[in-house]
């Protein structure tokens, strides 16, 4: 094997730069695309459920997911389509929720086996080929269910369903392209690790590795000891050896650097240097992050509905039920349901009582869910925001952030209240809100960070303006 110190140094530098790009830009973008897909799928799932075209899994909210699991793809009798697609589409939506909320989008977590699982999951419903003639059971069955939803529906509903399918297809195409680039990088990174950890290791016998066969033997000899539980991929090791000994070695090595180029990022950086950061674009990114709250808010709304029913069922004795029936019969106004919770100041730990009007509270959450969904799918709500001034958008972001923090505090207090006030025999029926609250808290932190970054850039622009400098002169 010929010595090529410059190649090794340049390779490791290129790998490091591309890894930084993936963790900083590409993987957050992929997560955003999955969130968009999840929002569309969740809306579609709820629509099909309301129309009784599918029967959702009654235990869906009780499932605990810790890894990517592919929904069932086996054939089933056509007469069972409502039940089977209810279970499978429910599992599909829940898995998207897991991917968006708990799956870590980082290079160290997205190993080749996990990427393979994502690819398999993405393929379980072919949104770009949603047809009753599809060879895939889930794709074919979902197509039939949606066709039934369109039958006799208003033109607006038909258009909405078509739009949901198209947007899901677009999201998945984008995600699959991002995954393909990720796979390519992880393969180069794997080979780079072998070069760095094995071939550059003092225990690697360079004399014995002076031929392709010798290098292969040396790599296999040291691999278990140095790489631990990392799988040995013979095809990738074979590529590495070709890059060292093949007569087309120079071209093979040049191809590596071509694959590791960050063309889009370079172009973006050059534009940023010329014009400076686009502050409105930064705000719109923050608005998109707010739209990403939709699935979490929707799940919290569903769970709160169930928990409130359990809470008030204990208080609805015979005489109260009789009184309620009497009021309904004579059209008398019933007393509004309220819950008093304790909110603690995070700084002083001093508690204060807060009365929650249940109907008003739940309607407010439902309203937020609709607004955030509209943002996530770029509906009328998003179009209205896009046309507003930066000052108005910042006001919207600040208001939503403040209300999200308050909502988190109230729901967290309600969770404590439910666990304390619900009868012991009924407590196992409570849905539990801490998983969604954790997701909400993390989202609030991320939104606040984006808002802070915008304000910092905006302040810098104002300071330069006051000094009579253009933002292009930095």
Describe the structure.
A two-stranded antiparallel sheet has the order 1-2. The protein is mainly alpha-helical. The chain has helices at residues 5-50, 81-101, 112-122, 137-150, 155-199, 212-227, 234-245, 249-259, 263-275, 279-291, 294-313, 318-329, 358-376, 380-386, 390-421, 434-466, and strands spanning 338-344, 351-357. Strand 1 and strand 2 (351-357) form a beta hairpin. It has 16 helices and two strands.
Write a brief caption for the model.
The protein is an all-alpha fold and 474 residues long. It contains 16 helices and two strands.
Helix and strand layout, with pairings?
Elements lengths: L4 H46 L30 H21 L10 H11 L14 H14 L4 H45 L12 H16 L6 H12 L3 H11 L3 H13 L3 H13 L2 H20 L4 H12 L8 E7 L6 E7 H19 L3 H7 L3 H32 L12 H33 L8
Antiparallel strand pairs: 1-2
Overall shape = globular
Low-confidence region ranges: 265-274
Separation, N- and C-terminal Cα atoms: 48 Å
Taken as a percent bin, the fraction of beta residues is under 5%
Radius of gyration: 28 Å
**What sequence of helices (H) and strands (E) makes up the elements?**
HHHHHHHHHHHHEEHHHH
* Annotation, overall tally of beta strands: 2
Descriptors for this entry?
mainly alpha, two-stranded antiparallel ribbon, 3% strand, globular
């Amino acid at each position: 094997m010929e010595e090529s110190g410059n190649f090794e140094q340049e390779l490791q530098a290129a790998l490091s730069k591309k890894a930084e790009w993936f963790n900083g830009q590409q993987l957050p973008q992929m997560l955003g695309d999955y969130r968009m897909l999840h929002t569309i799928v969740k809306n579609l799932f709820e629509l099909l459920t309301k129309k009784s075209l599918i029967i959702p899994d009654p235990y869906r909210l009780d499932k605990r997911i810790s890894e990517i699991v592919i929904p069932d793809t086996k054939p089933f009798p056509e007469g069972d389509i409502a039940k089977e697609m209810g279970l499978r589409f429910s599992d599909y939506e829940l898995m998207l929720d897991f991917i968006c909320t708990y799956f870590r989008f980082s290079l160290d977590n997205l190993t080749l086996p996990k990427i393979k699982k994502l690819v398999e999951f993405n393929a379980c419903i072919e949104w770009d080929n949603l047809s009753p003639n599809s060879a895939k059971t889930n794709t074919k069955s979902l197509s039939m269910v949606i066709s039934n939803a369109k039958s006799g529906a208003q033109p607006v509903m038909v258009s909405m369903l078509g739009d949901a399918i198209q947007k899901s297809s677009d999201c998945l195409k984008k995600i699959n392209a991002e995954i393909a680039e990720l796979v390519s990088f992880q393969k180069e990174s794997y080979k780079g690790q072998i070069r760095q950890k094995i071939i550059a290791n003092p225990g690697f016998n360079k004399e014995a590795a002076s031929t392709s066969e010798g290098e292969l033997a040396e790599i296999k000899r040291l691999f278990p000891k140095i790489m631990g539980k990392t799988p040995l991929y013979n095809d990738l090791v074979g590529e590495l050896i070709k890059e060292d000994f093949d007569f087309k070695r120079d071209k093979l090595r040049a191809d590596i650097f071509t694959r590791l180029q960050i063309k889009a990022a370079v172009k973006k950086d050059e534009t940023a240097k010329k014009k400076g950061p686009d502050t409105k674009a930064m705000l719109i990114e923050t608005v998109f992050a707010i739209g990403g709250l939709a699935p979490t808010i929707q799940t919290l709304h569903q769970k709160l509905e169930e928990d409130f029913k359990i809470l008030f069922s204990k208080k609805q004795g015979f005489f109260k039920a009789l009184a309620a029936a009497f009021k309904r019969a004579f059209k008398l106004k019933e007393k509004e349901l309220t819950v008093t919770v304790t909110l603690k100041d995070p700084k002083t730990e001093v508690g204060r009582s807060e009365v929650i009007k249940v109907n008003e509270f739940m309607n407010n959450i439902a309203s937020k869910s609709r607004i955030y969904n509209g943002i996530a799918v770029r509906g009328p709500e998003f179009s209205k925001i896009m046309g507003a001034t930066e000052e108005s958008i910042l006001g919207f972001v600040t208001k939503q952030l403040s209300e999200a923090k308050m909502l988190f505090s109230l729901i967290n207090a309600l969770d404590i209240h439910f666990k304390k006030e619900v009868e012991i025999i009924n407590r196992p029926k409570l849905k539990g809100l801490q998983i969604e609250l954790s997701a909400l808290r993390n989202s609030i932190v991320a939104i606040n960070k984006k808002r802070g970054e915008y304000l910092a850039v905006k302040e810098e622009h104002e300071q330069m303006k006051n000094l009579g400098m253009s933002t292009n002169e930095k």
